[in-house]
Amino acid sequence: MVYVALFMVAIFMGGIKSNVVTFGADQFTHASENAKQSFFNWFYFSINVGSMISFTAIAYLQSYDFVIGLGVPALVMFVSAIFFFLGSSWYNKFPPAGSTLSKILSILYYCFTASPDIKRDAPSFLDRAKHVKNIQGFMLFEEEEVDDVKSLVRLLPIFSTFIINWCLYAQMSSVMLIQGVVMRLEIFPNFSIPPATLQAFNSAGILILLPLFDRVIYPCLRRLSISFSPLRRIGIGYLFSTLAIFYAGGLEVWRISYLRDGNVLTQHINGVPTEAANLSVLYQIPAFLGIGIGEVFASVTGLEFAYSQAPSKMKSMVQAINMLTIALGNYFGTLVVFIVNAASAPHPWITDDPNESHMDLYFFTLTVLGILNIYYFIWLSSKWSD
């Protein structure tokens, strides 16, 4: 039943996430670009308010009773849905224009199966669809429909760079969490914090930085006529995420030095005695903050970029592709672990025992991938034109 519930959550959230951001931005149809940018900032801000609550209050409730801990979010979601529907009469609503996916697949099918004459005369692969006729002799697709698909395909290379970025982001809840477990968790005498709590610093950093950028930094840059395009912001975000992972690698080198010098302690994790370096887990905070800054620049701007560059009839589809990169980033991270462990056998880098692992080499490998991704993104950006 647990897996069924998780599957249902994935299905429902997939339907919500790709549409809610588009629906929200649609309410600013006649607003300025600055107002739309501000919407995406505050939209992401609200997401992290929820994240902060889940890492603190909800986690506290779940530590006492899972039924209450899961029931409260369900109740809040139900109440929020009621308020959402109560405002229905005030929303800008744009009716769906049919199945976008089926239209895309149809265009691709006819491009592949076009006659030799069409293949020869069409200036590009997708332009073949502009010359396909039905049995009555009329064009099967409108030029606008084909051009929309061309615009979508043009966005895919840019979105592909988000895969590495989300892979770096996923380290907060995986390898960085493992790293924190084998560091000193006691902050004050008789007071320790769970490593997962440090993810709250990521959300806290975002909650501080987003209003600062939205109300102070971006307006000042605009008054100084300094160009800060979406692609430039995304690139800066990639840089901060990569630097954060590099810092985590350096921290791991430092942690290992404590182990080699015998500067260790034993602490209990879920009742299990665990040997850890006598190095405070608070040293992980800069890595979590760095990834948070990367989110402010890259992830928030990614929502804005996806909406502004998507064809008018494909905005939810493009946001869905943008969200898909999150899943692909997580899967890519799993693939990286598999590859580095296979390459480093019989002494794999990531093992069940963190103190016998080489998490430093793993973090540095991700850093190299992040750097390569930045160079690839810069090359794509140099060829991009609105």
Jot down its keywords.
three-stranded mixed β-sheet, mainly alpha, 2 domains, Growth Hormone, Chain: A, single chain, about 5% strand, 12 helices
Overview of this structure, please?
- This protein has 386 residues and is mainly alpha-helical.
- It folds into two domains: 100-141, no CATH class; 152-382, MFS general substrate transporter like domains (Growth Hormone, Chain: A, Up-down Bundle), CATH 1.20.1250.20.
- 69% of the residues lie in helices and 6% in strands.
- It contains twelve helices and five strands.
- The protein has a three-stranded mixed β-sheet with strand order 1-5-4. Strands 2-3 form a two-stranded antiparallel sheet.
- α2 (33-64) crosses α10, α6 (143-170) crosses α11 and α8 packs across α10.
- The longest helix has 32 residues, at 33-64.
- The model has no long low-confidence stretch (mean pLDDT 87).
- Keywords: Membrane, Signal, Transmembrane, Transmembrane helix, Transport.
CATH class of the largest domain: Mainly Alpha
Low-confidence stretches: none
Helix and strand run: HHHHHHHEEEHHEEHHH
Under CATH, the topology of the largest domain can be stated as Growth Hormone, Chain: A
Write down the overall mean pLDDT: 87
- Taken from the alpha-carbon principal axes, the silhouette is globular
The CATH superfamily of the largest domain bears the name MFS general substrate transporter like domains
The chain-level structural class is: mainly alpha
CATH architecture of the largest domain: Up-down Bundle
**What percentage of amino acids are in beta strands?**
5-15%
Number of helical stretches of at least 4 residues:
12
Note the gap between the termini. Answer: 48 Å
Radius of gyration (Å): 24 Å
> Strand tally, please?
5
Largest sheet, spatial ordering of strands: 1-5-4
Largest sheet: 3 strands, mixed
